[in-house]
Amino acid sequence: MHTLTALLFDDFETLDLFGPIEMFGRLPDHYRMQFASMTGSITSSKHGVAMQTIAVAELEHPTDILLIVGGMGTRKQVNNDLFLQTLATLADQADWVLSVCTGSALLAKSGVLDGKRATSNKLAWQWVISQSNQVNWVEQARWVVDDKFYTSSGVSAGMDMALGFIADRHGVDVARQIANHTEYRWQEDSEIDDFYHA
Amino acid sequence: MHTLTALLFDDFETLDLFGPIEMFGRLPDHYRMQFASMTGSITSSKHGVAMQTIAVAELEHPTDILLIVGGMGTRKQVNNDLFLQTLATLADQADWVLSVCTGSALLAKSGVLDGKRATSNKLAWQWVISQSNQVNWVEQARWVVDDKFYTSSGVSAGMDMALGFIADRHGVDVARQIANHTEYRWQEDSEIDDFYHA
Questions:
Q1: Which pLDDT does position A159 carry in this prediction?
Q2: What's the pLDDT tens digit per position in A158-189?
Q3: Residue B48: exposed, middle, or buried by beta-carbon count in 10 A (0-12, 13-18, 19+)?
Q4: What is the pTM of this model?
Q5: Which residues of B have a CB under 8 Å from any CB of A?
Q6: Residues B46, B13: contact at Cβ < 8 Å?
Q7: Is residue A192 part of a domain?
Q8: pLDDT at A35
Q9: CATH code at B109?
Q10: How far apart are CA A50 and CA B36, in angstroms?
Q11: How many domains does chain A divide into?
């Protein structure tokens, strides 16, 4: 059993989080989810989804997989040193680190992506890459894998990346079965990016 | 401004709800969201997302659009007369009623789909159609529109249906722009169903 911890903050992007959670949630014998925030308070998405979280300091299980999502709330957190230090500590401890959309801006700013290849949201691209010049940013990709880091493109790309992660661990047939059961039209090839415009 | 009310219950399917919420949430000048439950208590998805809800009796705004999602929790609610009566009342009052996945089983059981065309999840098909023989069930469809009812196929089809609803109200270019901004590969044609197998 692996523990996936989503480190949340207010004004996160709704689907950034819940798309991957749906996919991992389809393998309950392999993955359990922890929803964390700095203080353990109710944390709200951009679209008013107010959810219970556990304080990082009180998490029940060690974090095997760290998930960091994007959204307008990242604009505030890139200037929150305590948040970034916590993110870096969790990332160092985790076996795998996954980001969706502008979540990679937070990873970049925290320093953990230094020297790594990574991608992010297309519409916020300039802002994202301005957070660190130590990252090898890859603009044309549905998602990018480098070492223990999986970074995805914007919003919906997080579902494709989650299925890609599952395929890498459990085989592509398991990922395809989840896509079929969720009636999701999975973009299997991480290098095909319909939303990149040169 | 239109108010979308999602009537929730425990063990709802995570992406059934948050996929459409992401799409409607992209038009904050047109849609506001209310998350309701029978008692206004914390309500949890199948995958442990514990969210705040408002009791149906205490909703702040009248419901213009009712959203009912699916998931394992529907198995319990089809036998909950008070829930079904509340669902029917909200559906009667709403201008539009949207369902995702096995949410249409609840609508069917409540009687509001009598004489209407509707679809649902492919994997739970026999169970869904057994809830009512008064519905004209359509198995091969990404989503179905009849009168004020939009019913979608399983899980991810809810996102396509939400964009279809938005296209019908605001024009297809608005829906395509949301798909582009969320990097979502929208299946625009409601009649193309990749998950139907004759």
A1: 98
A2: 999 999 999 999 999 999 999 999 999 999 99
A3: middle
A4: 0.97
A5: 13-15, 17-19, 21-22, 24-25, 32-33, 35, 42, 46-52, 121-123, 153-157, 180-185, 187, 194-195
A6: yes
A7: no
A8: 98
A9: 3.40.50.880
A10: 12
A11: 1
* DSSP code string of B16-72: HHHHHHHHHHT-TTTEEEEEEESS---EEBTT--EE--EEGGG-SS--SEEEE--ST
Q: Please state the length of chain B.
A: 198
| Residue A31 within any structural domain of the chain | yes
**Which chain A residue lies closest to B197 (C-alpha atoms)?**
A180
CB < 8 Å to B195, chain A: 180, 183
In a domain, A189, yes or no: no
Q: Which of A67, A57, A75, A54 is nearest to A158 (CA)?
A: A67
Note whether residue A194 is domain-resident: no
Which residue among A13, A25, A182 sits closest to B154, beta carbon to beta carbon? Answer: A182
How far apart CA A119 and CA A131 sit, in angstroms, is 13
Nearest chain B Cα distance for residue A94, angstroms: 21
Helix (H, G, I), strand (E, B) or coil at B77: helix
Q: What is the ipTM of this complex?
A: 0.96
Per-residue confidence (pLDDT) for residue A197, from 0 to 100: 80
> Regarding beta strands B149-152 and B96-99, do their DSSP bridges make them parallel or antiparallel, or are they unpaired?
parallel
Q: How confident is the model at residue B106 (pLDDT cuts 50, 70, 90)?
A: very high
Query: Residue B7's pLDDT is what?
Result: 98
Instruction: Say what the pLDDT of residue B197 is.
Output: 80
* Residue A23 structural domain: 2-181
- Would you say residue B198 has pLDDT above 80? no
